Amino acid sequence: MKLNIPNSLSLLRIGLTPVFIIFLFYDHPYANLWALIIFLVASITDALDGYYARKHDQITDQGRFLDPLADKILVLSALISFAVLEVIPYWMVALIVFRDLFITGLRVVMNNKGFQLVTSNIAKAKTSFQLAIIVTILFYLGFSKVQFDALSDLIQFIRDYDLIYFLTLIVTVFTAYTGFSYIYENRSVIRQFLS
Fold first, then answer.
1. Best CA proximity match to 126, nearest among 165, 71, 67, 171
2. C-alpha–C-alpha distance, residues 141 and 17, integer Å
């Protein structure tokens, strides 16, 4: 593997994931805030690696594979951890995990046979929505355990109206929709592959 800057940033994102999970489960008042900071840093590497690869013409086959893999490792690890912590329901996480693994598996199998699937803008928006809900949950977890008067009303509002559940439900439905949309938009290539 060629270790250019974009690929190194993707590997850094993978390496930050277990550190993020350790802080998420660590029993200390500030641990979830540190988890939030680590997640934000990892998310920034996601934006930087793509930007740098395009700007400096360092798009490689390894990068095309490594970047979405790093995204999935980070995002799915966070969502599974939230389910274990009983912050969000398992069924929502299961649906998101199934969609991502199914589409990733389909892409890998078809690429190995020489078929190229097109990723739509709506599928890219899906990752952004997932990152947004994860940051929201981390914000809620972090500031629920720390007395910070300026944010106490917001934390109470999130708790009272069960916003985490409803926002995650929206992200889950949108994620499932993007899976169907992805298959529909690539239906002609999938038909060629199956024939």
1. 171
2. 18
User: Using CB atoms within 10 A of its CB, is residue 65 exposed (0-12), middle (13-18) or buried (19+)?
Assistant: middle
DSSP symbol at 117: P
What domains lie within the chain, and their CATH numbers? 5-194 (1.20.120.1760)
Nearest to 167 by CA among 81, 67, 100, 79: 79
What pTM was computed for the model? Answer: 0.90
pLDDT tens across the length of the chain (195 residues)? 567 888 888 899 999 999 999 999 999 989 999 999 999 999 999 888 877 777 777 777 777 778 888 999 999 999 999 999 999 999 999 999 999 999 988 988 888 888 888 877 787 789 889 999 999 999 999 988 777 777 888 888 888 889 999 999 999 999 999 999 999 988 898 888 887
Token representation of residue 90: 């398992």
The tokens for 92 are 């929502």
